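User: Quick sanity check before I run a bigger batch. Here is a single chain. Can you write out its predicted 3D structure?
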Amino acid sequence: MDDYLAWEAQQPEKHDFFAGEVFAMTGGTLRHNLATVASVLALKTHLQGTPCKVFSGDVKVAVNVSEHWFYPDVVVTCDTHDLSDLSAAKINAPVLVLEVLSPSTAAYDRGQKFLSLQKLASLKEYALLDAEAARLEVFRRNAASRFELYVFEGADAQAELASIGWQGNVACLLD
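Assistant: Done. Predicted structure follows.
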């Protein structure tokens, strides 16, 4: 694992790590980037004055440090250990991970990444934003620690990210 982290820190591109394999992350579209930026701005504004912080793109999340490392599009942590060293490049205890879907990563985001994230006790919600369809799917951990799906369809749909107390229409996350 230390070899991956040392090697990856020297690379011009980002690389996810899963089960001993390294995967290069490709660039996104303008639509993908607009949705990522809009989501970060909406959540950052909402989180002002709270102990929680939102990050994007360059921050890794570690799921079992020897198993899976990846770069979420948007991640929120409220953990004091995560926020104690702002020169760090990773988060261990996210409460919310939001991925903007793209054709090249949708299967991974819905599949292995979500399976890995469920192992994080800190994670309260996993959100998938489809910028083309103006659709937000939120997998929210319930009292039994199982994830339930909430779907918000259409730009005008009122969405909720309960993990951080955010409410707004889906369009707020798109542009």
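The mean pLDDT is 89.

User: Great, the batch can go ahead then.
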